[in-house]
Amino acid sequence: MDSLSIVIPAYNEEGRLPQTLDRILEWLHAQRFKFQEVIVVDDGSRDATAGVVDEYSKPPSPVRLLRNPGNRGKGYAVRHGMLDAEGEWILYTDADLSSPIEELPKLYSAAAGQNAVIAIGSRAVDRSLVTVHQSVFREYSGRFFNLVMRAVTGLPFHDTQCGFKLYRADAAKTIFSRQEQDGFSFDVEDLVIAQKLGLRAVEVPVRWSNVEGTKVTMAQGLRSFTDLLQIRKDHR
């Protein structure tokens, strides 16, 4: 991999972004990419998220800021960043860096080794790699969501909601330009689109540690279940 974009959706992340960006930039400095960029997509934050990114984006830094037109949702933010990215491969990762950036080579190796254009990080394939767990309620809610997701969509994956996914650029542009979900169900929709288009995706176990401060409310979690039906309807 010679060319990499990293997309980070961010909503009110002034507290966590400095540590995340420091870690990513340190890792990138040790690599030998011909092209690299870090795109932080500010989803209408009400805190100093944009100001933090501005401080990190001074040349020759690879960091740059994109702004959404208000608070549009995580799916909108990721789509905005993925369609704007210029690298040959595009990783999107959550702002809390629950999966360490050092896990990225695992995704690329799996994609390259299995002739895939998408590699999704997974907490479910090898649960021993989860070092800090979510609450029992959230963890088992996630497992139940996955069971329903597989039944409704026919996708084979055990964890679609881990925020650590690598796309080859051409696949990303094809998939995200068709994405309609702006909320937290966008991951499922993108994988359904990929399946419909015959684009191969592989699920890869990654290290993951829960970081407190989730932006997912109970209402949004419940809505994700009804979103599955909409996704099936939209992409029959």
Topology:
Elements: E1 3-10, H1 17-29, E2 35-42, H2 49-56, E3 63-67, H3 74-84, E4 89-93, H4 104-113, E5 118-122, E6 130-132, H5 136-153, E7 164-168, H6 169-176, H7 186-197, E8 201-205, E9 208-209, H8 218-234
Parallel strand pairs: 1-2, 1-4, 2-3, 5-8, 6-9
Antiparallel strand pairs: 4-7, 5-7
Structure description:
- The chain is an alpha/beta fold and 236 residues long.
- It has a single domain, classed as Spore Coat Polysaccharide Biosynthesis Protein SpsA, Chain A (Alpha-Beta Complex).
- Helix content is 41%, strand content 19%.
- The strands form 2 sheets. The protein has a 7-stranded mixed sheet with strand order 3-2-1-4-7-5-8, sandwiched between helices. The protein has a two-stranded parallel sheet with strand order 6-9.
- α5 packs parallel to α8 (218-234).
